[in-house]
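Narrative progress, year one. The postdoctoral researcher (J.K.) led the effort to move from monomer predictions toward full complexes, under supervision of the PI. The following entry was the first complex the group processed end to end, covering 763 residues in total.
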Amino acid sequence: MSHLISLQAGVANIAEDAWQFVALPPSQQEVRKQAGKVVLFKLTGEQTVTPEQIAGTLIPANGKVLVPLTVFIARKTELQARLDQQEVGVWLDTHESLTDLNQAQADLNALPIIAVHVERFADGRIFSLGTLLRSRYGFKNELRAVGDVLRDQLFFLKRSGFNSFAMRTDRSATEAIASLNDFSQPYQGAVDEARPAFRRYNR
Amino acid sequence: MYKYDEIDQSLVDERVAQYRDQTKRYLAGELSDEEFRPLRLQNGLYIQRHAPMLRIAVPYGMLSSKQLHKLADIASQYDKAYGHFSTRQNMQLNWPLLEDVPDILAELAKVEMHAIQTSGNCIRNITTDQFAGVAPDEVVDPRAMAEVMRQWSTFHPEFALLPRKFKIAVSGTKQDRAIVQAHDIGMEFYLDAQQQLAIKVWVGGGLGRTPILGTVIREHLEWQHALTYCEAIVRVYNLHGRRDNAYKARIKILVKALGIDEFKRQVEDEWAHLKDAPNTITEAELARVAQHFEPMPYEVLAQHDASYDAATASNPAFAAWAKRSLHAHKIPGYRAVTLSLKTHGQAPGDASSEQMHAVADLAAQYSFGELRVSHEQNLILADVKLSDAFALWEKARAQGLASPNVGLLTDIICCPGGDFCSLANAKSIPIAQAIQMQFDNLDYLHDIGELELNISGCMNACGHHHIGHIGILGIDKDGSEWYQVTLGGSQGNQASLGTVIGPSFSAEEMPQVVEKLISVYLSERNGEERFIDTVRRLGIAPFKAHVYADKNAAKAEGIA
Ligand code: HEM
Ligand code: SF4
């Protein structure tokens, strides 16, 4: 059974996944993939993904593919025709940069889907990335959380602009749906409801 | 104080339901320890030495009598009939059962209380001056803004899982009493040249393992932008703060790594996008919240009260207490009163259920039914008539709440330490008790005068040892407990971090070490000079020389 929750017009359902998730091949080098990477990144320009990995990534020849950001950037020409057919989406890790994505793809809305991969559920960068994609970059299409996605973060993910959730497969996605509505009257404005309580109600 | 409307109430009620379900799933094995951990932490539940510890939020330290009665009842029903008031103005229960916590939360929700975000890697309880609203040197009552910020930070979706905990303090006085410089964000409210409410924003302070005082990131921020500006700061931190090493994950480390100029540039870049977004505070919202903090219906009284003057003249014990425990008030004839939770020999900050009930009654009778928790771990009745002070004292004394030691050496700030805390290197409560017994002579204590002595059981610094005039830190040497002493730390506008005086001491030596530090002060002080000022004037050398004199002599003999 599918573990994908799809949220459309405020209604959540279990949906079939139309996208093939394209993973990077394992790196031969020791990948220092710890969080906090972005600081290192900026200070040292260190790459997390090797050119060998990018070149070695197998992209299925047919159907809709969700490719890693680094692969998308490096092999965009190869993907262009399928991109025009709305068959290419991009996923990024929480330490990767939206500026890089935006430089490679000025019109993000040409992508039918962007996914953010969270390696550990406690990594809250995913919320800022979702918020920025929606509010700063005006991304309107499917925004998906993938990886260590658990029920107790769903409410926050939803409020940060995510509208599809690839739940960890060892847990019930059906039961998790309830947590999308853990709170009915949030205080602050966020992506799903920009107005804080004091602008929504005459308190 | 702030009263919930349906929106506030629905949020805490829904939280109880959510947490009940999470606990149920955990107990049923559907959530792993690791997955449950941040959930329970964000509800203030630690797993400690003996039992879980539950931290209950006391927003900016304000409590009503009704709430305190409830805390007392909860402590009786679910714990060992006492609670611990913490340096972050919250209350902790040391012995609740994990299974009972949802019920405790449901009880709290009945009196508009909760344990939301009292722990975990999120924005914590916002703290402020315990004399907010009544202090004569106050420029702006910070409580309305603190409440607006509390609401904004509660379940803020973008900041639910930060790299590390995040603490905000606000202050509206000339003399800072909220230690804004020791917080991740400190907000100092003031009136600008146009007499408009403005904020000086500090960032990157924090104690703990790497104590750092904050830096000013913005001298002038219009109050309307408080939330969006905080969002800009916390967003930069959320995205770029380190997550690979918990000890390097606080915002202070990021600010140091980037430098304040680069950090500020990034924040201002973010803010350019966020400024004027819907989270911008409206006049109407500030006014709505502020009406909950209107001045109390004070009586018109004279500056002096004859019965009070007579009581101080005839009763030295009362006079000694009044001298330490009564604090100036904006309104003539009123005083703020500190009830000491530092009775000698008792664990600092602990209050029994009986005491809590008593304080709740005293607040109802003498102080408009409200009270505050101070970061020095005492309880404050903010609006007491001078003419009631004597009656209040007698009742407080009967409950062991009238130690005349407020602001003195034995008003020790102390963390739970090795008796309760699994992170401890050493016990802290017995050290506090031993020092209190050493200085049990009241005249001597008053002669020594103002002094802040802070104790932490490990470098996490829950007891604020870095900013104690005398700081004591528990350390572990080959599995045994030792104590390192710092001198010259302080809170307030002249905040400073203490300097280590030398090698550490055993628990037995500690009372004598403090005694020696005091004897140097007493022989060196100029007139009314306070301990901290003598330390600042002389440096640590004379103190160090005296404390280690015997040790050095012993060593010298050994060599000879
Ligand atoms: C008994 C259980 C407790 C545990 C396990 C605990 C844990 C910690 C830890 C790990 C830190 C360091 C965090 C960091 O540096 O990032 C810390 C800091 C702190 N805790 Fe506690 N704590 C406990 C009790 C308390 C109590 C009872 C108080 C108040 C009396 C308190 C107040 C603080 C304060 C003020 C800090 C320093 C804040 C700063 O670094 O700026 N904690 N605590
Ligand atoms: S300072 Fe250390 S010993 Fe004391 S409560 Fe905090 S973590 Fe525990």
